[in-house]
Amino acid sequence: QTPEEIERLTVDEDLSDIERAVYLLSAGQDIQGTSVIANLPFLMRQNPAETLRRVLPKVREALHVAGVEMQLTAAVSFLTILQDESVSVHTYAHSFLQVILLHLEHRDAGVSNAWLETLLSVIEVLPKDTLRHEILNPLVSKAQLSQTVQSRLVSCKILGKLTNKFDALAIKREILPLVKSLCQDVEYEVRSCMCRQLENIAQGIGTELTKSVVLPELIELSRDEGSSVRLAAFETLVNLLDIFDTDDRSQTILPVVKSFCEKSFKADESILISLSFHLGKLCHGLYGIFTPDQHLRFLEFYKKLCTLGLQQENGHNENQIPPQILEQEKKYISVRKNCAYNFPAMIVFVDPKNFHMELYSTFFCLCHDPEVPVRYTIAICFYEVSKLLNSGVYLIHKELITLLQDESLEVLDALIDHLPEILELMSTGGESSVQENKLSSLPDLVPALTAAEQRAAASLKWRTHEKLLQKYACLPQVISSDQIYYRFLQRMFTIMMTNNVLPVQKAASRTLCIFLRYNRKQEQRHEVIQKLIEQLGQGKSYWNRLRFLDTCEFIIEIFSKSFFCKYFFLPAIELTHDPVANVRMKLCYLLPKVKSTLKIPADKHLLQQLEMCVRKLLCQEKDKDVLAIVKRTVLELDRMEMSMDAFQKKFYEKDLLDQEKEREELLLLEMEQLEKEKQQNDGRPMSDKTFEKKRRDSKTPTSLPKNIPISVPGSSSATPSTSKEIKKSKLIRSQSFNNQAFHAKYGNLDKCTTSKSSTAAYTPSVSGLSKTSMISLTDDSFRMRNTNSAPSSFSSNTSLPSTSRGTGNSVDPKSSGSKDTQPRKATL
Questions:
Q1: Which of 300, 310, 359, 418 is the most exposed place for a label (fewest CB within 10 A)?
Q2: Bias category Basic and acidic residues: which stretches (predicted)?
Q3: pTM for the structure as a whole
């Protein structure tokens, strides 16, 4: 920091990049030279010819005396230049290859490995002639016993890479003699390293040469005195099982594997770690050649590994445990973790039919293991286990509850990745095929789910909380509407109002919309809608009003257009008068979607109100940022084409989708009405004639159109019906609607975020005795299905703001008015 040092480190600003690099490599400090080498890929892209002519020679000189940091930087820069393809392969080999080969045997192991990684990447692109002359021929001398151990280790890795570049004949003539020599090396590190390269070599030389050359070497190495060599041979054999035929597996490999397993408990724990990790692949590869006795032995061996280390007493203080015991316990944890990883493979090994007898107790131990990594791994595998058990999935209901209640959020996070699929299997699998009995098999599910959400909410891991709320969207397929309303829906509303994390609030909002979409009681739906409007849309906090607009966006995606227009259109556009600029700004971004819910001419009066609000914003807005967004939004709104009541070719798919949404919403109303009638008639048997007379006496329309959009005014007393058979059909559907009506797989729904098709809907069948098939879903329909559907019409005596569809309907002066309109022309 003295003036002399500053003067010495100062570089003339007028120098070009090339001149500055040459100067710093010649006269600068080491840190400046390292900076130049790190910048070498940029110089190569900018001026490759001058860099190769002037800078690269200076780099070679600097590397002769360079320290570790400069060497590591050079290895990375050379690799980057190769990946950038700044120069041709021929030029690269001519300019850089010798520098790489020169530093392969650097005395520092880290530097040597860095240059080796660069060389292995270079080998991938070099032509055969260059590889033969520059790398393979010198390798013959470097692989000799007279060379250093490091030189022979490097030779092993290079040989493993070269086998993919030459044909089988060249490998047999030039490479295999070196491989055999290194497999018989006097140093166990070299034998182990060469053994691990035999897998690559086997893939290059083909099956016949592998059997005649590689397999004998592996068998010999599996009996090596060095434990690391035996371990390498075992792992290579397991990885090459697919290459060998049944005779080789049963006569040659199986005895080696048996011997290795028998001696593993007497050997180092690291061998047990590797064995436990490869055991699933091993049992799969040798499946079919085991005798019943051998099959049982391998199964018992696996069970023993699953409880390894748990038999010891754990009442001691960790501070008093000797370090070697602590290290041993860590290795035992790794063994049990690997066993949890291989558990699905072991189910296949014993056959899922024998799970309860053979593996249930082991699964129970893994789910209750005292160590988090073990429980985390089994939670990841839980979905695979559920799929394999299929109809026997009921056997692991209690373990699902246990993992949901796990004290570690890591375990919960791993489990909820596939929670919808797991719950679907739980609700559709099991001993009973009757839907009504499925829920009784999971009595603790709802308390476990609510407790899991509360633990996630109380932690600082908001991403886990967000993911959990998103996955709860599957609950309408699993549990009843009332359970969702009393145990989950109110909780979603609380999170929206009180949580401080925006992604969590949005996830809660979306899930609440899904619950609303599938809620089956009109009174509950009204209550939720009213809460959304009053406490969010008209809330005192601007933050709540912003969340109301998020909710409106989800409503538009999930529900039908008529539903949004009826209950949320007016409360949304009223926020154009909001005192907070951020709220008005967010509404401007939402206005194109709001306009897309309108149909002409039925919603002409709503279009007038929308245009009047936009005019007021243009004329009265004082915030310059909001005004700029309003102007852009006006242009976008002007370009939009309005949807018509009748189907248009351009909007056919969207209109069909919206029609299905309306039909589903109306069906929910019908089912609720039918359930009420059924409850009124419970306790006294009613003949078909009496039931038919009651139906005729009720004030219901004669039929429900199947293929046209339905728009019903505010009164909900009208229920379409046609005959006694349809009435019975609806009653049957109503009884099982909670669990059976929407039985499309949640995993499929989750994929529907970009596709377009129609939503699933039930329509009355011709015979009245069967359900119609499910219609395929789209992204919008998934969002719709994920929400509790409120029907397109509710009772007229509600206090909710609503807007009637149709040009002849009057509009409440508080909620709408007559404004100028400029309806756009649409081609029919």
A1: 300
A2: 675-699
A3: 0.73
